[in-house]
Amino acid sequence: MSFRDNLLYLRDSRNMTQEHLAMLLGVTRQAVSKWEAGASTPDMDKLVRLCEIFEVDLDELIRGDVTVRTVDQTLAIPDDAPVSDVTGYDPHMRSRALFIAGAAAFLVFGVGSVAMLARGGVGLLLLGGGWGPVLNPYPFYFLLTGAAGALACLAVAHIRHVAFCRAHPFVSNFYTDDDHERACRLSGFSRIAACALACFGAVIAVIQSVPLQHVSGGLSSLVVCCAAAALVAMYGRLMARRIDIEAYNERAEFLHGGCDVRVRFALLVAAVTVVAALGSLFFVLSAWSQILIWGAIAIAVGWAFLTVFRES
Hints:
Distance between the termini: 43 Å
Shape: elongated
Order of helices and strands: HHHHHHEEHHHHH
Helix content: over 70%
Strand order of the largest sheet: 1-2
Number of domains: 2
Strand content: under 5%
Structural class: mainly alpha
């Protein structure tokens, strides 16, 4: 018998679908279909993995006749067996959602801290002698901290997601209707919680600024609450999006191609821009020169964040 006949027999004897076998092998369903149609053959790693799954020898799988083997019915998948998460998709997507939500919180913290210091009386411009006014570096340390934290979270999320997509380009939809309902409730709750956190921060800021005359403390509370609101809102949105496995399957096979190159380029540009901005703080440059540099920071980091969020 040929390899395709042996593969068809072994898969049918285990009552295994092409989707299930594709998940176990880390390939697409179309790849399994091509093997069974004789249009292509798997590489050596996949052949070895097939031997492990079906408990046969390599020679027997390729050139032998597996139909003479006694079929162990206890290894067959029951017809009413629910689809399970054999790839670890759900914990991976939960972790990814947390990293990207953390990046959003870092961005809000960085931008909000600069606005807080400016509103609290810390000047953004200093006298620079013959160079004229220069930017005060102190407020922008917070912006750099936020940008660096956001880039680190985005880089970790993207690298891990690309590795997962390469290992598992196809995932069967194992989510139930209850899972979809819980995801919708979580998304709605996260939006409500984010609004509540932002309003709570505004109330605390007013209380600390007006009756207590502690403007900086009130603004600090507002920035922290807004960053927490961004984290909660983004996490809830990504947790709801993880349920759409069909969208994941469509994106997974392209993620390690041109999309991966675009995202890595965006992260690299943003990282180089942040390093250049950090270096600019130690040189006496005119205010306009530094404004251009910090404008480039905002564009690069924002572009990196949107690219990772959209493409991944």
